[in-house]
Backbone:
């Protein structure tokens, strides 16, 4: 079920979640993820899940955060995936306002619609329950409705 909340100046937060399996390894098979494994996995997710003309993406180890220096207003989708822990909580904020907020079951991909109304940079934060370390996360900000076309070869 989708919920819409309004924050001042017309910024809308639309919370809805779509789950897709993308070949990520469930945490029970990968109890911890090294920095090099996280980087390699993040690069693969970037190829498979990121809209090349979207607002960018980021990845790292849990807990972690990134700032995407974007200023474009519009309707987007936050796409997130993780490995190495059971779940990662992802929050995207701009100007102190939450634009997207979701739990990501590792081994699946979650898509959350979001509207960016202001010109503030977008901050993405990924945490595991209790500050648990050892997991890897990936987040991309795609144009609403973007889908990967054609085959993607990962080596």
Residues:
């Amino acid at each position: 079920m989708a919920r819409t909340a309004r924050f001042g100046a017309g910024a809308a937060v639309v919370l809805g979640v779509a789950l897709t399996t993308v070949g990520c390894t469930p945490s029970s098979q990968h109890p911890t993820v090294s920095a090099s494994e996280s980087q390699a996995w993040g690069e693969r997710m970037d190829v498979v899940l990121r809209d090349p003309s979207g607002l960018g993406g980021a990845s790292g180890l849990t807990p972690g955060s990134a700032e995407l220096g974007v200023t474009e207003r519009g309707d987007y989708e936050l796409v997130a995936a993780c490995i190495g822990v059971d779940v990662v909580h992802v929050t995207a904020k701009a100007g102190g306002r939450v634009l997207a907020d979701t739990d990501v079951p590792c081994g699946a991909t979650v898509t959350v619609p979001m509207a960016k109304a202001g010109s503030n940079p977008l901050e993405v934060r990924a945490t595991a329950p209790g500050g648990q370390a050892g997991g890897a996360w990936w987040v991309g900000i795609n144009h609403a409705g973007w889908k990967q076309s054609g085959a993607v070869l990962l080596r």
Observations:
- The domain at 3-143 is CATH 2.60.120.380 (Jelly Rolls).
- DSSP finds one helix and eleven strands in the chain.
- The chain has one domain: 3-143.
- The mean pLDDT is 79.
